[in-house]
Amino acid sequence: MSPVRPWPEKGMSPHDLLAAMREMKAHDAPWREGKVFSMVYYVDDELIEVLKAASALFFSENALNPTAFPSIRRMETEVVALTAGLLGGDDETVGTLTSGGTESLLMAVKTARDWGRAEKGITQPEMVLPVTAHPAFEKAAHYFDVKPVHIPVGPDFRADLDALQRAITPNTVLVVGSAPSYPQGVMDPIPEMAAIAQAHGVLFHVDACVGGFMLPFLRELGYPVPPFDFRVPGVTSISADAHKYGYAAKGVSVILYRNAALRRYQFFAYTDWPGGIYASPSMAGTRPAGPIAAAWAVMHYLGREGYLRLAQQTMETAQRIQQAVAEIPGLFVYGEPVMTVFAVGSRAPYEVYEIADEMALRGWHLDRQHRPPSLHFTIVPAHARVVAPLLDDLRAAVAQVRRPSPRRTLERGLVRFTAWLLRVLPERWSRALIRLAPKLFGGSDDEALPQRAAPMYGLMGTLPQRKDVREAVLDLLDQLFRPPEG
Question: Residue 72: which of 252, 196, 221, 199 has the closest Cα?
Fold first, then answer.
């Protein structure tokens, strides 16, 4: 596969260009039909049109320089202020907008690193986080040279407080809790974690990227929502994604700090460049104004009443699906999800990957998780319209998986045999076998992932050689980001 393409000799007409793009788009996941359970937080086409109009109005503006475009500065600061009020902030609470949850978490870690360096003289910073914390923290640790110290979660998938106490050292600059964690949708014990961090004089970040624009409205509706925001003593920063349950256009997230002195460590300024003074509040230099405008627009378009209505609708949908799952013998929901994000497991763990394959053949896109094996559900308003067919297909998929099948028997046997083989082969051979796993289990030179992924996930999730699994994933990533033939 060559990464090189010849430059088009002649331009295309708008008609032909858009036709070609629509043809490519036709093969994407059908999120408008409510068949995707991550990545897209779809309400309806009317809201999509509002977002598109707001984005288009500020299509060419650049949020790099707020003095050139005061309208963008006003919208950004108002979105931050609205979010701060929603999450228990006060007149001291400040923040910025970022390109998404990952950048918000990067900024929280960078801020903690620089705070620890300036306030405590820490040169080898560490942060403590549960194993369920978002991988963006691992990315931040890699980028900013902060050592991640992982603590386990209990049987309820919430952070282990005793382990947290033991993990904090003089080099700790940050402790992390999730509200909720993405894998199982459960809430870490935020008040207790924040109190431990405060007692040790370190910062505490609440990752509410998923829950920040849902939990406050569920609490107002009377659902049991544990304390998690700036009302909790010891919480020093919070991230919340406006492009998730804030229903804004991608990509825009909010990173909040308890006060301006702390946010100052996030900023960057360079004053000796011949091109002039360069300063930026977050990672990016040039920042698209469209997502900022769309975030401001959706908050004013929906208003508090609209968010409450969507929260009620979405929570009722999630509970209906969870109840139906619990009625299917052998299936269950992990932990005690606090909102509209949850994971479904099976008494026969490998079975969930086969169920995912069967659901994919029926057009449903469910994320596969491991440790433990599960299917991930992020429920959005659009799913209220497809609950009945979803559950019908889920029951049919489970029944199909549990019928005797020579193919499934062979696949399961192949997974067990391969896992045994990897334990007894020399390290060099086992490493090569792991990196061939996607093709061994149904892939091809033209497919980065096999159509039926159960064998690959079943093997990858149980292998002890995590470094080799990582290399296999990097190989896959390399293949995904090469242009297809033709």
Answer: 252
Domain ranges of the chain: 55-298, 406-480
Provide CATH code, domain 55-298. 3.40.640.10
Q: Which residues contact 179 (CB under 8 A, 6 or more apart)?
A: 187, 188, 190, 206, 207, 208, 211, 212, 215, 228, 229
Residue 328 has pLDDT above 80, yes or no: yes
Residue 260 neighbours by CB distance under 10 Å:
11
What number is the average pLDDT over the span 439-452?
A: 52
Q: How far apart are the first and last CA of the chain?
A: 10
* Contacts of 271 by beta carbon, 8 Å cutoff, 6+ apart: 277, 278
Selected residue with higher pLDDT from 461 and 367: 367
Q: How far apart are the C-alpha atoms of 296 and 290, rounded to whole Å? A: 10
Q: How many CB atoms lie within 10 A of CB 471?
A: 14
β-strand pairing of 126-130 with 172-178: parallel
pTM > 0.70: yes
Q: Are 357 and 454 in contact (CB under 8 A)?
A: yes
Name the residue with higher pLDDT: 301 or 67: 301
